[in-house]
Structures are given as C-alpha cells and as structure tokens.
Specification:
Blueprint: H1 2-22, E1 43-44, E2 52-54, E3 56-79, E4 87-93, E5 100-101, E6 106-110, H2 113-132, H3 135-153, E7 156-158, E8 163-168, E9 175-177, E10 181-198, E11 210-215, E12 223-230, E13 235-237, E14 240-249, E15 261-278, E16 283-285, E17 288-295, E18 298-303, E19 305-309, E20 313-318, E21 325-327, E22 331-333, E23 344-346, E24 357-358
Antiparallel strand pairs: 1-18, 1-24, 2-21, 3-10, 3-15, 4-6, 4-9, 5-8, 6-7, 8-10, 10-14, 11-12, 11-15, 12-14, 13-14, 15-20, 16-17, 17-18, 19-20, 22-23
Helix pairs in contact: 2-3
C-alpha cells in the first residue's frame, strides 16, 4: 500500500514538472523592484515602444512654493493726524473713488473759517510790522503768521504721492477725529506679494532670486518677479513656524486689485542645458540611482549620478548622454494586477501590464 502511494506521488510530480516546463515562456517573471534593482541584470524582448523616450537636454528649476496676497508697493490710509489737526467737520470731499490724483492735490477739507481768519490777521500784522516794527518785532510777527498758516493748511488733506483713490471712508458733514481713516490711496503702478515660507525653506530663499507668480483670477499667465525681502524674524501660523517674504512683481495688470490671492514659485536653483529625465524613470540599486537604458532592444540597468529635481524631472549629471533611449517608467511588483502571480506594471499607468521579460 505504501509503495502504491509513493508511485502516485512520483507521477504527480512528473506531471506538474512537465506542465511547468511547457509553459515556462508564458509565465511572468519579476523584473524590477520599485525601490531596488540589480545593476547586473539584462532585460529584453517585448519592450513596449510607448515606454521608451529619448534623453534630451533642458532647463530644470528647483523651486520653493508659497502663496499670499498682492498689494501695492506704495499705499496709505490717510487721516488728518498726518496734518497735525485734532479733527473737525468734513466740509468738502474733492475727489471720488477710482480717481487718479497727483502728489499734493487737495482731497478733503474740514471746516476752517476760524483758522483762515487767524491766518489773515497774522499776515496783516506781519505786513504792518515790516513797515513800522523793529527787526525783533518783524521776526515775531513772521513766526506767528507761519504758525497760523500751518493750522489753516492742516484742515486740508492732500495726496502724499500720485496714485488712485481706492476708497473714501467719510461723508460731507461728518465730524471726525484726527486719527479717523479718511481715504485709502494706492500707487497702482507697482505691486508685490506678501507671503510666507517655512523655516526650512528660508535657508534656501535669498533676496534677489527670481520668482514666477500666478494669480487665481488670471490662471495660466505667469508674472515674473523678484524676492525683495526675507524677514529677520519668524512667526507662528496655525502651529507652523513661518518666515514672511516680500516678492516684487515686474509686471502689473489693469485687473489687479489689492488683496487678490496669488501663488508663487521662488527659483532657488536653476540649471540650463543639462540632461533631464522624468523622475519615474529612476529606481535605486545597491550602487545608487539607476535607469533602464535601451540598447539593441535590451533594457540595461545603468547607474547614474543625479542632481537637482523639480518634482517632475531629475537632473542627470553622469551616466546618460543626449540621444540615449531609456524606459520612461520604473517598475514595481504588482501582485494585484497580475492575479497574484508577481507581474510588473507601469507606475502611474491606467492598467499595469508586463512590458519586459528576463532571459
């Protein structure tokens, strides 16, 4: 009975071995692991042309991303405190929202009858003193007149710079204190972005670096700019330490309004005319980074020395030349896509499929 069972087991082993031998060319064989690859292996046959790209040179930028809001470089909330008066009743508003004004132009006047009267009296006394008074009397009356003139002029708010009237916060007849905001004035000829970066990124961001800025309202249009300030302090935002930065925009648009949201990429490193490949083409081996270089319809694991990356492309310093052909995607074990049989699929592809077979 024992010999009969042994004979049955031997027959089963022979049958299974024969089936495996006949189907050996149709079984998927592991190629690469997504994290490690043997640099001595050679992969050939059935290389899908869609998976091959030609190596080219290009520009690669390492950037730090941030977001913030645009604001005019020169802006001011004007009040009568700047004129030295304590306030008064608004007599006349001489401008309207959206109006372009010149530096020194009158914007708002408070009631100034008493101040005007005091100035005229002081002026008349000064003119009289110049005729009949002594030198000290003349000097006294002159100073009195100048003080009266300053008080009279303090009742008129003027534009400190040329720009646009964005908002007016008072109406004629209002009684206001000297510290009350009256007008919001901007110089709309230049804008900047007020943003912040992480404490780690601030080690790479420096004044003078170039910036690419995009506004939510103008998607697809990139405004060039420059880092003009990196704050000498950090602050806490939502439990995260950040450093404020200011980004000056080289161009402006008539559609700009203070407070529009913006995203920006600060270029902390840029290399031109260098070999670049998609990051998906890279895997790692015991000797470092590896790409699959295609030669004579064979995919050869080729060690490369990498440089900077922008998250999509990787700089290759050594190991590849312009015109070389490589596999665009690294491979990973995909037990689910091959019914648990250990096949390999293309990372990021719609349907993982085996593309190489090892010999």
């Amino acid at each position: 009975m024992g010999k009969k069972k042994l004979l049955i087991w031997i027959l089963l082993i022979l049958i299974i071995g024969g089936v495996v031998f006949l189907l050996r060319d149709h079984l998927p064989i592991p190629i690469l692991n997504s994290s490690r690859v043997s640099s001595e292996s050679v992969y050939s046959e059935n290389i899908d042309p869609r998976a091959i790209i030609e190596v080219k040179k290009g520009i690669i930028k390492k950037t730090v991303s941030t977001s913030g809001y645009i604001k005019p470089v020169n802006e001011a909330y004007l009040s009568f405190a700047t004129t030295g008066t304590t306030g008064g009743t608004v007599e006349r508003i001489l401008v309207k929202r959206g109006e372009i004004v010149e530096r020194g132009q009158e914007l708002v006047k408070l009631e100034d009858k008493q101040e005007h009267l005091n100035y005229l009296k002081a002026k008349n006394e000064y003119e009289l003193a110049k005729i009949t008074g002594s030198p000290s009397q003349i000097e006294e009356k002159k100073l009195t007149m100048e003080v009266a003139l300053d008080r009279y002029e303090s009742k008129t708010l003027r534009a400190p710079f040329s720009g646009k009237i964005v908002d007016i916060f008072v109406s004629e007849g209002d009684f206001i204190e000297g510290t009350h905001d009256v007008i919001y004035l901007i110089d709309d000829s230049s804008y900047e972005v007020a943003a912040s970066i992480s404490e780690v990124d601030c080690l790479e961001v420096k004044v003078g670096q170039r910036v690419e800025i995009e506004l939510d309202i103008l998607k697809g249009h990139i405004f060039p700019g420059t880092v003009t300030e990196v704050a000498e302090y950090a602050r806490m935002e939502g439990g995260v330490v950040t450093v404020p930065v200011t980004l000056r925009m080289d161009e402006v648009s008539p559609y700009f309004k203070p407070g529009f949201s913006a995203t920006a990429k600060i270029i902390v490193n840029m290399i031109e005319n260098t070999i670049i490949v998609p990051v998906t083409a890279l895997s790692t081996s015991s000797r470092g980074s590896v790409v699959l270089k295609v030669e004579d319809n064979k995919a050869l694991p080729t060690p490369v020395q990498i440089g900077i990356s922008d998250g999509f492309y990787q700089e290759i310093k050594e190991g590849l030349q312009e015109g070389d052909r490589i596999i665009v995607n690294s491979y990973q074990m995909s037990t689910t896509s091959q019914g648990g049989r250990g096949g390999f699929g293309v990372i990021g592809g719609p349907t993982p499929i085996p593309m190489l077979r090892q010999r």
